[in-house]
Design a protein that fits this description.
The protein has about 180 residues and is α+β, with helices and mostly antiparallel strands. The protein is built from 8 helices and 4 strands. The protein has a single domain, classed as Glutaredoxin (3-Layer(aba) Sandwich).
Length: about 180
């Protein structure tokens, strides 16, 4: 009979808890790149129309985004009904790290003025200007969307990226590093 080391057993347990990204969503995410120019034009028209009606100041929106990036080591902007946003949220939830989610609306065609301007401002955070969501920020830097996050998860690099950015572990916010001494 073959013996198992503690390391082998821990590796199996770690794999059992690992999140494996949805392959169908990954394939669809890669295909969405073909529609990027159309979505970008649509987003800019929507932001100009709805943002103009409600007099949204794009500089204030950008300032708010920057403020949230500074306050949150892991931040995700989503649409509530988007399968790409749901998949990205599932990936982040599968980690032991905290993250903040900002839902702009249920879907892109249901956005109001400020949300439409936010969508365009977020597109300026990524190379190529993709207006799709989710947009994921780790350590204040936009890593991209669902596809990029899924690639980090599949390669096993996501935990390292989150650790390097000093993203707090779930349940650790506000705890002293010496709280285990119970000095009360």
């Amino acid at each position: 009979m073959k013996s198992f080391s503690a390391l082998t057993i821990l590796s199996v347990i770690a794999l059992a808890d690992a999140y494996f990204p949805n392959a169908a969503v990954g394939i669809a995410a890669k295909g969405m790149g073909l529609l990027k120019p159309i979505f970008k034009l649509e987003a800019e028209i929507q932001a100009a129309a709805l943002g103009g009606i409600s007099k949204v100041d794009k500089d204030e929106v950008i300032s708010e985004i920057n403020d949230l990036k500074k306050k949150n080591k892991a931040l995700i902007y989503t649409y509530g009904l988007s399968p790409f946003s749901v998949e990205a949220r599932n990936i982040l939830e599968s980690t032991d790290f905290e993250f903040t989610e900002v839902e702009l609306g249920k879907e892109w065609f249901l956005l109001g003025g400020k949300e439409s301007v936010t969508r365009v401002a977020l597109s300026e955070e990524v190379e190529g200007g993709a207006t799709s969501l989710p947009k994921i920020f780790i350590g204040g830097k936009c890593i991209g969307g669902c596809n990029e996050l899924a690639e980090l998860a599949k390669s096993g690099e996501l935990a390292s990226v989150l650790l390097d950015a000093k993203v707090p572990k779930k349940g650790s916010v506000g705890k002293s590093p010496f709280s285990f001494f119970n000095l009360n």
